Description:
The complex is a heterodimer. Chain A is built from eleven helices and ten strands. By secondary structure, chain A is of the alpha+beta class. Chain B has three domains: about 5-110, Butyryl-Coa Dehydrogenase, subunit A, domain 1 (Orthogonal Bundle); about 130-235, Butyryl-CoA Dehydrogenase, subunit A, domain 2, CATH 2.40.110.10; about 240-385, Up-down Bundle (Butyryl-CoA Dehydrogenase, subunit A, domain 3). Chain B is globular and about 75 Å long. The interface of A and B includes residues 281, 373 and 375 of A.
Amino acid sequence: MALVLTEEQIMLKESAAGLLAQKAGVAQLRALRDAGDARGFTPEVWQDIATMGWPGIAIPEAYGGLGYGYTGLGLVLEQVGRHLSPVPLQSTVLLGGTLINALGSEAQKQSLLPAVAAGELHVSLALQEGPQHAPEDTALKAEIAGAGYRLQGEKCLVLDALAAQQFVVIARTSGVPGDSAGLTAFLVAADAACLTVEQRSLVDARGVGALELNGVDVAASAVLGEVDAAWNGLSRSLDIANIGLAAELLGVATEAFERTVEYLKERKQFGKVIGSFQGLQHRAAELFAELELARSIVLKALQAIDADDPQLPLLASAAKAKLCEVAQRATNEGIQMHGGIGMTDEYDIGFFIKRARVAQHTFGDYNYHLDRFAQLSGF
Amino acid sequence: MSDLEHFRADTRAWLEENCPAAMREPVRGFDDLYMGGRNPEVDHPDQQLWCERMAQRGWTVPQWPREYGGGGLNKEEAKILQQEMARLGARRPLESFGISMLGPALLKFGSEAQKQEHLPPICRGEIRWCQGYSEPNAGSDLASLQTRAEDRGDHYIINGQKVWTSYADKADWIFCLVRTDNTGSKHEGISFVLFDMASEGVTTRPIKLISGSSPFCETFFDNVRADKRNLVGEEGKGWAIAKYLLTHEREMISAFGAAPAKSLGAVAVENLGSDASGRLRNGILRHTIAQYQLDALAFGATMSRVGDEAKAGQGLGAASSIFKYYGTELNKRRNELNLAIGGEPALGWDGDVYGGGATSRDWLRSKGNSIEGGTSEVQLNIIAKRVLGLPD
Ligand SMILES: Cc1cc2nc3c(=O)[nH]c(=O)nc-3n(C[C@H](O)[C@H](O)[C@H](O)COP(=O)(O)OP(=O)(O)OC[C@H]3O[C@@H](n4cnc5c(N)ncnc54)[C@H](O)[C@@H]3O)c2cc1C
Ligand SMILES: Cc1cc2nc3c(=O)[nH]c(=O)nc-3n(C[C@H](O)[C@H](O)[C@H](O)COP(=O)(O)OP(=O)(O)OC[C@H]3O[C@@H](n4cnc5c(N)ncnc54)[C@H](O)[C@@H]3O)c2cc1C
């Protein structure tokens, strides 16, 4: 496939940039943070986004989506990254919709996906249990209880937890932590008895939470797909999610870089603009080169999702690892090259480094994905 | 079958029939490339045979116009030819500065007569060219070059010195930057002239490289005569041609950044072994190889993206400015890893046990990639100023 955006995709990118700049930019994120907003986004803005059809971009037309594919969603996510938009696209669309589509039965897809596509249903993945991403280590237990299951355990890093109406909880139905087999995905309503949803506060000030399942009873019909067999669908969904996050990180890194280069052209010291100093010029030029590589690998990975490329796992880890590296460098340099002002809360550059680190960590950081990339490459 | 499918089938059949077995073996290092010329260096007789056969079809330079000895292929056909050659492991029949540098410049700036005279012998590998750009005091700052050309009516008389002139002692002709006017800014008054290296007054003195070979020379001009019909473009306007040619040179050099056919990770596992989880034993080396392979993958994707964007009419994006810098730095990283993976044998310098020192010699040669054709630092200056718009 040609590694190039079509005209239609370029238009989508531009319309996303327009809407997000106006309604969901750094200023809105700052306001939500300062207000201590637990939900982490503005429902009216989400309504506007739903009207644009973005929640359904990657959902097949048969289930009420646009069937436009993940390359399109990735372009929107890149803009989300550029503007640091506080929107639940990652939780509900990139993951929620993808998981239901990958794991759900036909009936489950029919009943849930149209609501996701319309922006009416917020679904979030509850996977991580410890400090690091390690999906095989899932320990949260689901045991048969009557005609259904009883779930017991804890989850953290649940994106947009306070907004979700449903969670996809990954639980162990057989085997031991460390096995990829024996995992089952359950749909659990946010208002289920014995479920506590707690707001957590991470550096990026986005809506995130933790779950405590203290003997939560669910019906057998709550199983998303097959018992003990969540791994393949989960793994594919995580690959897609990591590529989506890489697209977001591309936006974060590019914007941080462009703001920094602009600053280098304004700030004067020693009687000249600091952008004239070669010590800074070469670092900026090297970063530019890395960003171009980052852009290419993200596009290649996004296209691999839509083309059902067997290399998807390798490309997902490649894209995530590369974008972790580049976003880290771009945001670090962003602070450093701004000097003292970059350290202030009042100045926006700090928001980029904060979001970058959380997105880097989410579903596996640089170390996790570079290791996986090497393993999938055979060494 | 579509036309392209026919073309593929014909090409495949022809290559199977005509590519000699020895030319299906991988090239063993830099010195094993066939460069043609009046007195060609031939390591294997099939090199000449293969070059002749390919030249008859115009396939030494597949995309140049047929009238000048090229193959007249369009992009799709050229890609098919490349794929079919790769399928057989067929070597490129001819490598030369005529193909990679002078040709593109002549096609764009040369007169009809110059194209007719100089391009066909390049395609046939009959005339080998060298590049007379750098001088002792004009390296990165190329435009400060001082080799003088005096106007003598129908010809110039050239005096001065070039340095680092690759293959000057083997080449038949030179494309040379000379100063025809000293009065304006340093970028004005430079002219682009061609002359025969057998001309009276040309001497070359080979310089030995750290890799042990002597591919380049000091080149001296003492009252050398160059006919004016071999002035390319206008007198004093050679800088634009020089820069255009450099973009082609850099493109050629950045191709060294392409990932090797056999991944370094796989070679490392063969040499050093893996643990029960399949991971390379040495975790630190594994990390460095993974970083390299990741960047090589992303760099390859960037080369493809730039090509695809250009084909889609979106222009040559800013990304192309990184090729020379990134490709050569990647190639140096790859060569360092070859040493690390290979261990003692990779450091061998001479003798059959060490394959003649191919690994270490390639490693040393790769250090020049980020110097020749404009250094990495100069490339970063270009990106900072032209692409990012940072001031002087
Ligand atoms: C946490 C903190 C505490 C501080 N406490 C104090 C304090 O107690 N008292 C006090 O007086 N100050 C204090 N400072 C200020 C500090 O000394 C300045 O921030 C620092 O000297 C940089 O100056 P600047 O912020 O104006 O950045 P700038 O000078 O504008 O620098 C911006 C960027 O340009 C680079 N740059 C500038 N000139 C060159 C050059 N010639 N070549 C290459 N790069 C260049 C810088 O390295 C930097 O990356 C503090 C700063 C911080 C962040
Ligand atoms: C293997 C090889 C083959 C070559 N073949 C040819 C050939 O066929 N024909 C030909 O004409 N030339 C050839 N060259 C010459 C090559 O083009 C020059 O070596 C190159 O342009 C650098 O010039 P220099 O060697 O004078 O280094 P210098 O320009 O003296 O550079 C020395 C160091 O200073 C740095 N530097 C210089 N200016 C700046 C700046 N403004 N900012 C930051 N850093 C700077 C450089 O990056 C370098 O690291 C070849 C070189 C090599 C290594």
